[in-house]
Amino acid sequence: AQSVTQLGSHVSVSEGALVLLRCNYSSSVPPYLFWYVQYPNQGLQLLLKYTSAATLVKGINGFEAEFKKSETSFHLTKPSAHMSDAAEYFCAVSALKNAGNMLTFGGGTRLMVKP
Amino acid sequence: DAEITQSPRHKITETGRQVTLACHQTWNHNNMFWYRQDLGHGLRLIHYSYGVHDTNKGEVSDGYSVSRSNTEDLPLTLESAASSQTSVYFCASSESRGFMSTEAFFGQGTRLTVV
After folding, report:
1. Among all residues of chain B, which has the CA nearest to that of A89?
2. Spatial separation of the C-alpha atoms in residues B20 and B76, rounded to whole Å
3. Which of A3, A32, A57, B73 sits in a 20 to 30 Å window from A92, CA-based?
């Protein structure tokens, strides 16, 4: 079984400030981890993914995340927030079943950016 | 360009009616998934398919069914719509690559209201 917990359903930062969105996972097998972003009235778009290569993963729009096995965490960061980063962010873990895979999502974190 | 499309984008239906939501992908992906998105719950898996004629129940499958007669389509049917099924529904697809986990591509979503 696998699960994802995102701490903080709402996070507010000022423009130019550090963005930190927290994600902790549990998985009975080595996990694959993903961060997705959802803009209003749109589907989910992949930000970045961890697939057992480098533990520090760089994604689109200046985001990155670090896989820490000892802490079972995969927190998402961005050094300087931009107004366009306001969106909902989802952390997800993948389990492999047979030849396929499915994603288990966290509850999401809505990021608000203040001018 | 390959894509995944959902129709309709918005639907209002009455309690007890049968409703079918369409999902069509041109990625030629073997894996297809249906999720529902509700406030505070993130995305929860309804049904999934790893190939033609393969279907599996997800976390919240009661009251829903799917069928996979070809690679491109995975329609989701609500047998008898209930108010608890008011939600935003997302279809996703991903490629099978043995034991490697691959990213999922999402449709734009269907907002379903059951009155």
Report:
1. B42
2. 6
3. B73
In this prediction, residue A100 carries a pLDDT of 54
The distance between the two most distant Cα atoms of chain B, rounded to a whole number of Å, is: 43
Q: Do B35 and A100 touch (CB under 8 A)?
A: no
Please check whether residue A49 touches B, CB under 8 A: yes
pLDDT tens string A20-76? 999 999 887 778 899 999 998 888 999 999 887 788 999 999 999 999 999 999 999
Interchain CB contact of A103 with B (< 8 Å):
yes
Write phi, then psi, for A61 (nearest 5 degrees).
60, 25
Gap between the Cα atoms of A76 and A73, Å rounded: 10
Q: Does A107 touch chain B (CB under 8 A)?
A: yes
- pLDDT tens for residues B25-59? 999 999 999 999 998 788 999 999 989 999 999 99
Q: Report d(CA B73, CA B25) in Å as an integer.
A: 7
For B38, other C-beta atoms within 10 Å of its C-beta total 14
Residue keyed to tokens 């279809």: B91
